[in-house]
Task: inverse folding
């Protein structure tokens, strides 16, 4: 019997595995062209080698060829339909490309094939939450936590989702479960404390950080976290001491420098300043950390009235941040146009009588850095009112609207599918969140600035809500956004052209709401408020329907926890130093003035 020669177009499994390992090593080293040549050699030998198809797909995605990447991964799934890795990889790619339904189906298949792998369930739940199916997401998080009771992630994710849905009590229950069940180590304790702070439970967060530091006083993250909790509680001297200790342990905690500078009275020591300047010049340092350092240095020189040095740092910090999180102006503009086309007087007129009749909500909207925190602090100082801060409840409802209305369209196009029963349910859910936060308050404020985008939904589910629109000089407002490193979102704020453009669009939108929105609206100009705080505060309180109380003029003495970039400012008496602040930076603001056009 004669032995047939091996086909030159096929290699044995061991040779293919060796070739793939070589390609993967090149890929991980960033030598993409060499990795691609290696993958192509494998393709010529065996075009259906599933793992090579997956790696070629990842490479195609890196090379900005999404259609090719999806095609390759689908082929891998076809050849090995029982391999959860390929379904999971396909799901991740589809999610990155915005195909939520496809991603959810693939994540669900991966989890069914490998239920013992918690990551499969967590990714499915995250995808469901992003798609607006919160109930299904919470069910999956619960299932994962039952299977892996010591795993922290499902507790934290479900607590965050519950808080976004206006259920702070449910979020607290999940975090308490995590405290009793999750593995007990330093990293877990730090994450738990941060999670409590994220839902506004700053006192409990401080307790957890303190307990951690009693065992590990050199835990820089815990020390900094305790400083942040104290800062939110208005304990600025204590916060400063913890922040400085954290930096002594780990000088690379970039966000801590910015947190220190949010206290406008703080002065960096010469040694600390030298460390910051050395770190910010190190291009091998993570771009996020360098951005945080640039913003802190910008604030440092701004306070010292050195505008050229300050602007240089602000510009560098903004540029680094914008590279990581680019802003799509066209997407934003299209959303504004769709809202204005949908939410007209006629649209609201035929939907009268929908929603919950409560008068408790007071929504404070406008551009970020327009005085929303100051307005809320004045109202919250009234004994019959409560300041709830920037709530995510309405934004979460907007994401869920397609699911709850059974529509394939997103907001605002799905609003025409909103039934009276669903509108009442959503209104009750929002009010339940206010009740949980302040059961005895007659008025509760929600100062999420960009709720101005969702006022059409708010009018349908809360027809007796009141709106306060905070307005500020365009140049000052835009520059204040540009000089602020926000904790999340607001991608437009990191480019002068974008922030000016968004300011103009927000003016158009608010003019539309003044004409069409069937809700009472009060406009508060920041400049009038700081120049004449008493008359403007009386006007504001009258609009809320509450009787005047002199404590509203001593708002800076209010002891509530604050989750805002203005954490220091709202605890100070009214000051006018921020008026016409832009003039000191006029030589560098041509792009802003051009983008603002007539608004400037």
Result:
């Amino acid at each position: 019997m004669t032995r047939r020669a091996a086909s030159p177009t096929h290699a044995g499994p061991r040779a293919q595995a060796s070739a793939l390992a070589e390609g993967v090593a090149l890929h991980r080293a960033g030598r993409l062209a060499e990795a691609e040549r290696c993958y192509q050699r494998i393709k010529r030998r065996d075009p259906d080698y599933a793992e090579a198809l997956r790696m070629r797909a990842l490479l195609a995605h890196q090379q900005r060829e999404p259609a090719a990447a999806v095609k390759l991964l689908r082929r891998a799934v076809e050849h090995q339909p029982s391999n959860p890795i390929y379904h999971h990889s396909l799901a991740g790619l589809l999610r990155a490309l915005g195909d939520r339904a496809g991603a959810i189906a693939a994540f669900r298949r991966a989890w069914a094939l490998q239920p013992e792998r918690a990551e499969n369930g967590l990714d499915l739940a995250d995808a469901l939450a992003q798609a607006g199916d919160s109930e299904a997401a919470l069910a999956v998080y619960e299932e994962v936590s039952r299977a892996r009771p010591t795993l922290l992630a499902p507790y934290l994710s479900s607590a965050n989702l519950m808080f976004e849905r206006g259920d702070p009590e449910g979020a607290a229950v999940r975090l308490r479960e995590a405290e009793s069940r999750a593995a007990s180590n330093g990293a877990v304790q730090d994450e738990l404390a941060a999670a409590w702070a994220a839902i506004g439970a700053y006192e409990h967060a401080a307790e957890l950080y303190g307990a951690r530091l009693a065992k590990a006083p050199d835990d820089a993250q815990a020390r900094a976290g305790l400083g942040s909790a104290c800062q939110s509680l208005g304990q600025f001297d204590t916060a400063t001491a913890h922040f400085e200790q954290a930096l002594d342990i780990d000088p690379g905690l970039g966000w801590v420098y910015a947190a220190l500078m949010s206290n406008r009275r703080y002065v960096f020591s010469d040694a600390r300043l030298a460390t910051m300047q050395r770190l910010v010049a190190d291009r091998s340092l993570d771009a996020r950390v360098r951005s945080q350092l640039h913003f802190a240095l910008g604030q440092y020189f701004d306070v010292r009235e050195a505008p050229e040095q300050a602007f240089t740092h602000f510009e560098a910090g903004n540029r680094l941040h914008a590279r990581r999180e680019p802003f799509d102006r066209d997407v934003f503009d299209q959303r504004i146009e769709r809202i204005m086309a949908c939410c007209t007087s006629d649209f609201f007129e035929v939907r009268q009588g929908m929603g919950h009749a409560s008068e408790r909500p007071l929504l404070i909207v406008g551009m970020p850095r327009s005085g929303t925190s100051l307005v809320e602090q004045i109202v919250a100082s009234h004994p019959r009112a409560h300041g709830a801060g920037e709530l995510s409840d309405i934004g979460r409802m907007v994401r869920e609207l397609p699911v709850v209305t059974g529509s394939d369209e997103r907001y605002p196009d799905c609003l025409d599918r909103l039934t009276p029963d669903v509108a009442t349910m959503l209104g009750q859910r929002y009010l339940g969140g206010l009740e949980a936060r302040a059961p005895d308050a007659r008025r509760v404020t929600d100062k999420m600035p960009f709720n101005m985008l969702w006022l059409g939904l708010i009018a349908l589910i809360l027809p007796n809500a009141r709106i306060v629109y905070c307005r500020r000089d365009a140049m000052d407002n835009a520059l204040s956004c540009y000089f602020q490193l926000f904790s999340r979102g607001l991608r437009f704020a990191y480019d002068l052209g974008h922030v000016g453009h968004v300011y103009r669009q927000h003016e158009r939108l608010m003019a539309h709401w003044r004409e069409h929105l069937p809700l009472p609206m009060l406009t508060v100009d920041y400049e009038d408020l700081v120049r004449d705080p008493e008359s403007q505060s009386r006007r504001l309180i009258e609009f809320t329907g509450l009787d005047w109380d002199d404590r509203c003029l001593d708002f800076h003495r209010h002891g509530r926890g604050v989750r805002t970039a203005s954490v220091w400012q709202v605890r100070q008496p009214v000051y006018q130093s921020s008026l016409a602040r832009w003039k000191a930076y006029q030589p560098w603001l041509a792009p802003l003035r051009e983008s603002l056009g007539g608004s400037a």
